[in-house]
Specification:
Layout (H helix, E strand, L loop, with lengths): L8 E6 L8 E6 L6 H4 L12 E5 L5 E5 L11 H14 L5 E4 L8 H8 L7 E10 L4 E4 L5 E3 L10 E4 L10 H6 L5 E5 L8 E2 L4 E4 L5 E4 L2 E4 L21 E2 L4 H9 L4 H12 L3
Parallel strand pairs: 4-5, 5-9, 9-10, 10-15
Antiparallel strand pairs: 1-2, 3-4, 6-7, 6-8, 6-14, 11-14, 12-13
């Protein structure tokens, strides 16, 4: 995807698959009102269920977590997840795949509650510190210290979590919570978005020419009280895949030409290769 100043000409060289001839075309940049960018975004509606699941034909359980908030039709997503795990237990699934690709986040309390079904022992989730506009420093709010508490039914079998670059904010909390567990693998082409911030009263900075920059005023901290999840000055951060899928000609064709779910296939392979 090429973007440049409106009206500017750009020459692009390309080669079609199976063709050795290099072709060149000239493209003129125009203002499409961000339409091409909008087409790449996942659009959630109020009727989209926060949580859905099923048993795949190969015997693995699959749960799609679209966002971490109640909806008009699902007031308690954590209970739906609990019931799915009970169903999976009865059907003796071979492993569990949780899909948080394109999950924009939501409520950290809900994330911590749902993660409780995936741990055997209590696990620290986060401290939250907020920017004090009067003192210019960050201060921990003790009322927002969260710990993941084990819940039943407890799932401790093989686990794969699917992520992508659009897994953002609290959506990054679940892969961060299970990362490092011996039976869990994070799978994706990229890390998550690296935007695990908290907003109560945004930090606002006025820029030249009328632009306004708004930043989250809250930070999620790990047990050592270090910022977790947010990206650094190099854009590195978020939940990092244990299994990073290569984006090459083969996987590009499989995903975008043939329409295969490459990440899901890699997750299934990871579960198959995992020791009991």
């Amino acid at each position: 995807m090429t973007r440049t100043s409106i009206g500017k000409d750009i020459q692009v060289a390309f080669k079609n698959k199976g063709d050795n001839e290099i072709k060149k075309v000239t493209l003129k940049a125009y203002d499409d009102n961000y339409e091409t960018l909008k087409k790449t975004r996942v659009k959630l509606t109020k009727t989209d269920a926060p949580v859905e699941g099923k048993v795949l034909s190969n015997g693995y359980g699959y749960v799609k977590m679209r966002y971490f908030l109640p909806s008009a039709t699902m007031t308690h997503p954590e209970k739906v997840f609990e019931n799915l795990l009970k169903e999976f237990e009865e059907k003796q699934i071979k492993g569990l795949i949780i899909d948080v690709r394109d999950n924009p986040g939501g409520d950290d309390d809900l994330v911590a509650a749902m993660a409780g079904y995936l741990v055997k022992e209590p696990k620290f989730y986060e401290y939250v510190s907020y920017y004090n506009h009067r003192t210019g420093t960050f201060e921990i709010n003790p009322n927002e210290t969260r710990t993941i508490k084990p819940l039943t039914p407890s799932y401790d079998g093989k686990l794969a979590v699917l992520i992508n670059q659009r897994t953002g904010s609290s959506g990054e909390g679940l892969p961060l919570a299970v990362k490092g567990l011996p039976h869990a693998r994070i799978v994706g082409f990229t890390s998550t978005n690296g935007s695990f911030g908290v907003v109560s009263s945004p930090i606002v900075v006025e820029m030249p020419e009328g632009y306004v920059l708004q930043m989250p005023d809250g930070r999620s901290l790990n047990q050592e009280k270090m910022i977790q999840g947010d990206s650094n000055d190099k854009g590195l951060g978020g939940a990092i895949p244990d299994i990073k899928i290569p984006l090459n000609e083969q996987t590009f064709e499989e995903k975008y030409v043939r329409g295969q779910d490459v990440e899901l296939n890699y997750a299934i392979e990871a579960l198959q290769n995992m020791k009991e």
